[in-house]
Design goal:
Keywords: Repeat, Signal, TPR repeat. The structure is a single chain. By secondary structure, the protein is mainly α. Among the domains are: about 110 residues, Serine Threonine Protein Phosphatase 5, Tetratricopeptide repeat, CATH 1.25.40.10; about 70 residues, Serine Threonine Protein Phosphatase 5, Tetratricopeptide repeat. Helix content is about 75%, strand content about 0%. The protein has 23 helices and no strands. The longest helix is centred in the N-terminal third of the chain and has 17 residues. About 40% of the residues are buried.
Length: about 425
């Protein structure tokens, strides 16, 4: 049994990666570990910085001015006309153009082409080169070039020593999309370690990765962690309950759904029905019926033949026969179904409301039932207990005419006749 909401998982995974407009500003590296800061400074000095040629520098300055005035098209046209000669000038111009393309809709491939040239030149200052690697990785991921994205993310980490949790999250996302589910777990765990404020997305990838490998117990543990870290999120409570159901841990499934219900997290018909189902599965039909009844009345569970008859059956299982009779009658009226009126009659007969039972059985016959003989037998029984011998005898004679009940009705007929005679009634 696999009661899981993988549509929800897919939706959450899609939200794990968010691309905005890429600015041309220099990146900051606030996520470099303190014991690596000295090494980063050494690398910056070692790499140094170069100065643009005079002619290119003036054009770049003019392009920056246009860009700052939000005249992106004009700035881009100016840059595209440039024909830099030196390796550094070429790399700088390519990075500038690549960054601009990255911020334009539908220009990711052009951005990647320019940024690759800038990266391959290996001429840019430390921060610019690191930013180029990271942007290349992000754009590759956006374009679903997952293997290439991983290459650039790893280059970025090796070059910058930056431990950005979002980078590890996106690496995990790429591996998941490549169906390398086991490999996706490690960077997701690293992202969890690095995020100062808990982020749900790496937990989701871990859960989904285990699920795709059919490791349902591990997937369940991953959702347990989500509930622990994000207890205010309703979706994780219901997801956890569903995972418990999928592993047939119905007791914990019930306790989870109960807690979710008490916190007001069950908001859909399906969720409330799951809670009711779990009560029944755990041998608590009365609570199951109470939940169903409450939410049929509130309108959360649609009133239908199915919902009303299930509620009636649940009350029957709880031995609340009067309530069961009430809802079998409602279901019968809703669907104009004789079989349901027959069930109503049986419930009333069980609590010795014999006259009411006879009315229900007669209504069942009027609406139509598959086995009339059974209903005639029940009518006879109801009249018998009321010592209404003639009516009982009439009903049993009708049952004797039905193939399925002829034999049993014949023995009943003799017993009814004897009982009537003892009561002074001649049939």
């Amino acid at each position: 049994m696999r009661v899981t909401n993988m549509k929800l998982i897919s939706k959450l995974l899609a939200a794990s990666l968010v691309f905005g407009t890429y600015a041309v500003s220099m990146p900051s590296f606030a996520d470099v570990p303190s014991d690596q800061l000295e090494e980063v400074e050494r690398r910056k000095k070692e790499r140094g910085g170069q100065v643009l040629g005079t002619r290119i520098g003036k054009k770049i300055g003019a392009a920056y001015e246009l860009f700052s005035e939000e005249k992106v098209k004009e700035a881009l046209e100016m840059l595209l006309e440039l024909e830099p000669k030196g390796a550094f000038d070429k790399a700088y111009v390519n990075r500038f153009i690549g960054n601009m393309y990255a911020g334009m809709e539908g220009k990711a491939k052009e951005a990647i082409d320019r940024l690759k040239k800038a990266e391959a030149a290996d001429e840019l200052p430390f921060n610019d080169h690191a930013g180029t690697l990271k942007l290349l990785a992000d754009l590759s991921l956006q374009e679903q070039a997952y293997a290439e994205a991983l290459v650039y993310y790893r280059k970025f980490i090796d070059f910058s020593l930056d431990q950005d949790p979002n980078v590890y999250l996106r690496m995990s996302n790429a591996l998941y999309e490549m169906k390398k589910y086991e490999e996706a777990i490690k960077p997701a765990r690293r992202a969890i370690e690095l995020f100062e404020t808990p982020n749900q997305n790496p937990y989701v990838i871990i859960m989904a990765s285990y699920y795709e490998q059919k490791k349902y117990k591990e997937a369940t543990k991953a959702v347990e962690e989500l509930v622990k870290v994000f207890p205010e999120e309703a979706k994780w409570w219901t997801q956890l309950g569903s995972f418990y159901m999928s592993t047939e841990d119905f007791e914990r499934g019930l306790s989870t759904f109960e807690l979710a219900y008490k916190q007001g997290f069950l908001e859909t018909e399906t969720q409330v029905k799951q809670l009711a189902q779990l009560y029944s599965t755990n041998g608590i039909p009365f609570k199951s019926a109470q939940v169903q009844e409450k939410h049929i009345k509130s309108g959360l569970i649609s009133e239908s033949k199915q919902s009303l008859s299930v509620l009636a059956s649940t009350y029957r299982n709880a031995k609340e026969f009067l309530k069961a009779a009430e809802y079998y009658a409602k279901a019968g009226k809703f669907a104009d179904d004789g079989e349901l009126y027959k069930d109503q009659g049986n419930m009333l007969l069980a609590i010795e409301r014999n006259s009411e039972a006879v009315k229900a059985f007669n209504l069942a016959l009027d609406k139509g039932v598959k086995r009339k003989g059974v209903v005639y037998m029940a009518i006879a029984e109801a009249h018998f207990y009321e010592r209404q011998w003639k009516q009982a005898h009439k009903a049993i004679k009708l049952a004797m005419k039905e193939k399925n009940t002829a034999k049993s009705a014949k023995s009943w007929e003799a017993y009814i006749r004897e009982s009537a005679e003892r009561d002074g009634v001649n049939l």
